[in-house]
């Protein structure tokens, strides 16, 4: 079973994503979005990371950059999301894909597969 880690500060969105992804056969873990998030990724060995650009006290873009700088996490698939169209900036910073909120569940599943 492929594992997806979530970095999302909206509890409703976390619940929806967990339900959707579990129905599609993924193992889903929502990690606390804190300064140690990037370090917590490595031991989980996920198939993909789903990161919101705008997190309460932290920048999803900074998380993305620290994941790309770490040799052990640099190759993890990262999907960034935001209510603002930040596709170009996310891709430039190393994201594999970007989804503009609100997105259709099928779009997320196709990006993950």
Q: In short, what is this structure?
A:
The protein is an alpha/beta fold.
Order of helices and strands: EHEHEHEHEH
Low-confidence stretches: none
* Percent of residues in β-strands: 15-25%
Secondary-structure class: alpha/beta
The strands making up the biggest β-sheet line up spatially as 2-1-3-4-5
Number of helices: 5
Chain-averaged pLDDT: 91
Give the % helix.
25-40%
Q: Distance N terminus to C terminus?
A: 12 Å
**How many E-type strands?**
5
Largest sheet, described in full?
5 strands, parallel
Describe this structure in words.
The protein has 113 residues and is of the alpha/beta class. It has a five-stranded parallel sheet with strand order 2-1-3-4-5, with helices on both faces. The model has no long low-confidence stretch (mean pLDDT 91).
Keywords for this entry:
globular; five-stranded parallel beta sheet; 113 residues; alpha/beta; 5 helices
